[in-house]
Amino acid sequence: MTDKQRLKREKAELRGAHQSNAGPVPEKKRMMSVRLADIDWSGCAAVYGRPYRDRVIHLLALRDYKEPELLARLQRDGVRQKDKDSLGRILQEVADLNVKDNSFSLKEHLFQSLQTDWPGYSKTDRANLKLILSRKTAPSQNPTSSSQATSPGPSERDAPARPAQ
Start and end of every RNA polymerase II elongation factor ELL N-terminal domain (predicted)? Predict the structure, then answer.
């Protein structure tokens, strides 16, 4: 075996040993970079400058929150003290309280005013919002067909299926 071949083999063995000897630090670093990649950092500053009420509305559009959870989420993007003190009043205006678990959900009529390109939304949030909005608008687009589908009359149940025209 020539010196050149032996050197190549040693380098390959070192690379293999280095890859298989990955300790907790590289693993932790890799996990952290994945989390950071999911965050749209440019949105944090843009969201901080938006009205507090709009920030609350856009968070509640994605899911229900308990008040402490919502406050913690808002603080992550930055919150002024005066805004922090007005959360209860804003929740009364824009949210319905579920008394079973003390969580707040966005009032139905406010879904129409949402911005799908809200700077605080990640790609996943935007996709989830589109799904939520499509579910909310689908039944209201054709209310007669949904009411017939849920409770067919006796003649509809017994009649043979008709081809679509």
Answer: 20-136
